[in-house]
Protein backbone atom coordinates (compact mmCIF):
# COMPACT_ATOMS: atom_id res chain seq x y z
CA UNK A 1 0.00 0.00 0.00
CA UNK A 2 1.21 3.48 -0.84
CA UNK A 3 1.49 5.97 2.02
CA UNK A 4 -1.05 8.79 1.96
CA UNK A 5 0.97 11.82 3.11
CA UNK A 6 -2.18 13.81 3.87
CA UNK A 7 -3.20 11.23 6.49
CA UNK A 8 0.35 10.30 7.50
CA UNK A 9 2.67 13.32 7.02
CA UNK A 10 6.42 12.89 6.71
CA UNK A 11 7.41 13.51 10.33
CA UNK A 12 7.77 11.47 13.55
CA UNK A 13 4.04 11.42 14.30
CA UNK A 14 3.13 10.54 10.74
CA UNK A 15 5.78 7.81 10.71
CA UNK A 16 4.45 6.20 13.91
CA UNK A 17 0.84 6.35 12.73
CA UNK A 18 1.81 4.96 9.33
CA UNK A 19 3.69 2.09 10.98
CA UNK A 20 0.68 1.33 13.18
CA UNK A 21 -1.50 1.29 10.06
CA UNK A 22 0.97 -0.90 8.17
CA UNK A 23 1.07 -3.33 11.11
CA UNK A 24 -2.69 -3.80 10.76
CA UNK A 25 -3.80 -1.59 13.65
CA UNK A 26 -7.29 -0.15 13.06
CA UNK A 27 -6.79 3.59 13.55
CA UNK A 28 -10.55 4.21 13.44
CA UNK A 29 -10.84 2.41 16.79
CA UNK A 30 -10.30 4.13 20.14
CA UNK A 31 -6.82 3.71 21.62
CA UNK A 32 -5.42 4.56 25.04
CA UNK A 33 -2.63 6.92 24.07
CA UNK A 34 -0.05 7.84 26.70
CA UNK A 35 1.59 11.27 26.61
CA UNK A 36 4.52 11.84 28.98
CA UNK A 37 6.05 14.86 30.66
CA UNK A 38 9.36 14.57 32.55
CA UNK A 39 10.41 16.71 35.54
CA UNK A 40 13.61 17.01 37.51
CA UNK A 41 11.78 17.60 40.79
CA UNK A 42 8.88 15.99 42.57
CA UNK A 43 7.39 19.39 43.43
CA UNK A 44 7.18 20.47 39.77
CA UNK A 45 5.67 17.13 38.77
CA UNK A 46 3.07 17.29 41.52
CA UNK A 47 2.04 20.83 40.57
CA UNK A 48 1.64 19.76 36.95
CA UNK A 49 -0.26 16.61 37.95
CA UNK A 50 -2.68 18.65 40.04
CA UNK A 51 -3.21 21.06 37.15
CA UNK A 52 -3.94 18.17 34.77
CA UNK A 53 -6.39 16.64 37.24
CA UNK A 54 -8.22 19.97 37.35
CA UNK A 55 -8.32 19.77 33.54
CA UNK A 56 -10.07 16.39 33.98
CA UNK A 57 -7.17 14.38 32.59
CA UNK A 58 -6.47 10.79 33.65
CA UNK A 59 -2.85 10.66 34.85
CA UNK A 60 -0.19 8.74 36.71
CA UNK A 61 2.84 10.17 38.50
CA UNK A 62 5.96 8.17 39.31
CA UNK A 63 9.66 8.53 39.97
CA UNK A 64 11.88 6.98 37.30
CA UNK A 65 14.84 5.95 39.42
CA UNK A 66 16.52 4.03 36.58
CA UNK A 67 17.99 7.28 35.23
CA UNK A 68 20.53 9.52 36.98
CA UNK A 69 19.44 11.84 38.37
CA UNK A 70 15.96 10.42 38.98
CA UNK A 71 13.13 11.99 36.99
CA UNK A 72 9.50 12.40 37.85
CA UNK A 73 7.17 11.36 35.05
CA UNK A 74 3.58 12.48 34.58
CA UNK A 75 1.76 10.26 32.10
CA UNK A 76 -1.54 11.44 30.65
CA UNK A 77 -3.91 8.79 29.28
CA UNK A 78 -6.19 9.93 26.47
CA UNK A 79 -8.75 7.55 24.95
CA UNK A 80 -8.99 8.65 21.32
CA UNK A 81 -8.81 7.66 17.70
CA UNK A 82 -5.16 8.25 16.79
CA UNK A 83 -5.62 10.84 14.05
CA UNK A 84 -2.59 12.89 13.10
CA UNK A 85 -4.10 16.36 13.69
CA UNK A 86 -5.43 15.38 17.13
CA UNK A 87 -2.10 13.87 18.19
CA UNK A 88 -0.27 17.04 17.12
CA UNK A 89 -2.78 19.30 18.91
CA UNK A 90 -2.41 17.35 22.14
CA UNK A 91 1.38 17.34 21.84
CA UNK A 92 1.34 21.13 21.52
CA UNK A 93 -0.97 21.47 24.54
CA UNK A 94 1.12 19.12 26.70
CA UNK A 95 4.33 20.88 25.59
CA UNK A 96 2.92 24.22 26.80
CA UNK A 97 1.84 22.64 30.09
CA UNK A 98 5.28 21.06 30.53
CA UNK A 99 6.98 24.42 29.99
CA UNK A 100 4.56 26.15 32.38
CA UNK A 101 5.60 23.81 35.20
CA UNK A 102 9.31 23.51 34.35
CA UNK A 103 9.15 20.09 32.72
CA UNK A 104 9.84 18.66 29.29
CA UNK A 105 7.31 16.99 27.03
CA UNK A 106 8.64 13.47 26.42
CA UNK A 107 6.47 12.02 23.63
CA UNK A 108 3.57 9.66 23.18
CA UNK A 109 2.89 6.02 22.59
CA UNK A 110 0.22 3.39 22.81
CA UNK A 111 -0.26 -0.32 22.85
CA UNK A 112 -1.40 -1.67 19.53
CA UNK A 113 -3.75 -4.56 19.29
CA UNK A 114 -3.56 -6.52 16.10
CA UNK A 115 -5.59 -9.68 15.92
CA UNK A 116 -4.85 -12.27 13.28
CA UNK A 117 -7.69 -14.53 12.33
CA UNK A 118 -6.13 -17.81 11.42
CA UNK A 119 -7.89 -20.17 9.11
CA UNK A 120 -8.92 -23.34 10.87
CA UNK A 121 -7.32 -26.36 9.33
CA UNK A 122 -9.15 -29.63 9.06
CA UNK A 123 -7.40 -32.45 10.84
From TrEMBL:
Residues 11-110 form the Regulator of ribonuclease activity B domain. Pfam families: RraB. InterPro entries: RraB-like_sf (IPR036701), RraB_dom (IPR009671). This is Ribonuclease E inhibitor RraB. It comes from Acinetobacter chinensis.
Amino acid sequence: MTRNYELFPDDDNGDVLWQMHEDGDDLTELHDIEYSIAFSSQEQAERCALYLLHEEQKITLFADEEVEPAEWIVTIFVNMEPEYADVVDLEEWFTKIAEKFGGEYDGWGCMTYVYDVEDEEDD
